[in-house]
Amino acid sequence: MSKITVPDLYAALKQHFGFDAFKENQLEIIRALLDGHNVFVLMPTGGGKSMCYQLPALLMEGTAIVVSPLIALMKNQVDTLRGTSENDGIAHYLNSMLTKTEVEQVKSDIQEGKTKLLYVSPESLTKEDYARFLRTVKISFYAIDEAHCISEWGHDFRPEYRKIYDIIAEKLVPAPIMALTATATEKVRQDIKKCLNIQDAKEFKSSFNRPNLYYEIRTKTKNIDKDLINFIRQNRGKSGIIYCLSRKTVEELAEVLKANDIKAEPYHAGLEPQVRNETQDKFIMQDIDIIVATIAFGMGIDKPDVRFVIHYDIPKSLEGYYQETGRAGRDGGEGKCIAFYSPEDLKRLEKFMEGKPVAEQEIGRLLLKETAAYAETSICRRKMLLNYFGETYTKDNCGNCDNCLMPKKETEAKEDLAKVLRIILATNEDFREDFIKNVIFGKITEEVTLHNLQDLEEFGCGEDQSESYWNAVIRQALIAKYIKKDIDDYGILKVTESGKKFLNKPTSFLIVEDRDYKDAESVEPIQTGAESSVAPDLYDMLQDLRKKKSKELKVPPYVIFQDPSLQAMATFFPQTIEELQNIAGVGPGKAKRYGKEFCELIKRYCEDNEIDRPEDIRIRTVPKKSKLKVNIIQAIDRKVSLEDIAESNYIDFDELLNELESIVYSGTKINIDYFLEENLDDDQIEEVYDYFRQSETDRIAIAQKNLPEYEPEELRLVRIKFISEMAN
Ligand code: ADP
Ligand code: ZN
Known about the structure:
alpha/beta; Rossmann fold; Arc Repressor Mutant, subunit A; 5 domains; seven-stranded parallel beta sheet; 35 helices; 17 strands; binds adenosine-5'-diphosphate; binds zinc ion
């Protein structure tokens, strides 16, 4: 049993990283490790995997060994960790790039007990000299990052990874093992556990939902470059990645962007490693805004503030798409994921496959079909993606994808679902979607005649509807779980238990028809997440200062402070090192190391602009409370529903209203229109608003006497809007 308690963990989280709460599963994972278990961690990109080993490493006796495949990644993580402490020896890496003197320094820091984390590449681990040294020191545990590299079934197999366990077992001191990955198939999972001999590991799988990512599919027209340039200009100064399928497109597009004064560079496997590294560094240091890349780019980088990921061509699989879009908004801030789609692209991709072995072609086609279904659907994209990864998303409207923001009308498809189910059963649940559609359309094919299906009652029963209509019925039946796809024989459609129940007693089945990309009507871009309470000019100044410091100190900007922290600073105006520690993501180490100039800048800004700061941030005795306010304000900026805000902060709705009132009465502007408009009609809002404008008092009890048809909560909500707009 370990002596480190849960309160110790919270204190260390605040102390070293400046966070008040753990993300999903982090606490449970860390506790399992501290209790001496082997642990298996499955988390989506951006889920906060590194914290799972960094925090316990800092607290446990000895040094944690972190095996990581990429040198660039190691360096970033070490920089970030050093930024959280006053001791540079706290984290080191060992790899082929170090000089002899540097290696000696690493060894002596470890021996002196300064070093809590040591990053190694799998190749270094196999080096006799290092292994001999590591045998002599106290190891707290082993963390194997990107553990899917172990499996030949993963998308990034590395043979050296297979040796890790042998080395630990034969040459090093035994200690618990933590394996971490963001890639999830069952097959790979089993492989990892077997190879690391951790079949007994406690397994933690987080939700793959990334609520801050916004998904949109746009029609790819001849004007795509113009659309893209407009988009980038609207998002000036933000970092973005544009993925293309071919090197040629990458090169050409990068040229076009550069010619339009956009700071962009190409990146693909055909470029010299040195050029690639330079480009990557420039991107991390924010010397360039955009990287135009093939899928070769991204795995090694850990930049938390990528604000958009664009797919210039439709990706070949949803796995790839999800991995690539996952690189946006890792810090929980804005992350727009936009893919351009045209059916012609799809045909081109299918043609490319023709040269490949038959089995590979078949898999490739099935994966492409999933992508096409995703692109064409009119239902919530988040729902569709999560469903693809085996997770049920229960909300109907996520509020953060193009389809949810511009919903299409639903139509009743009860009869048609029954037809589909009957056909699947009548053909012995032995065929894929395309074949089922042939039966629906009454198309005579070889396979149809072979099985005598032309005599089936349902044969040709759906000729009066379009193919895209039937696609929608089938795909939405999959999501509603009336049918499912066979796992072993991938793509074969089966009727589920609830499908059979439905056939016995059909109930309403509403569907939305797919989008039609042939008559390319361009979808209007949607603006998401206004940052209303942030002082934009101060935010810009803080970003500039961060960039300057980043150059001076030769660390990436986000190592100093991440975007959400700068936004909070431009909202709450902290002016001393103590106040700065109340900002999310800023612990005492960071505040001391980097905070001085930021505080000075904020102070000057407040004086120049005669800004009265909200009370709470100044009073250090209530840091918890002000943190809650920061959370609330940031969530409102992201247009999160108030119910969800209350829930995620563990307060009830009434307490939330109290907090909101205290925020606006102390002079901070917030915009809750998005929530009001969902719950009240425009004229209702206007009526209450007018009442407050004319009334002598803002007391709710009196307002209720005058407007008895409204609930007190409704009155309070409109009053919040009123105070925010009128008094601030
Ligand atoms: P992954 O490796 O799973 O992709 P990271 O470890 O890079 O994710 O973490 C993603 C982001 O989440 C980082 O910006 C990190 O600072 C942030 N983060 C991690 N843990 C927490 C936490 N408990 N509270 C707030 N932010 C966190
Ligand atoms: Zn949605």
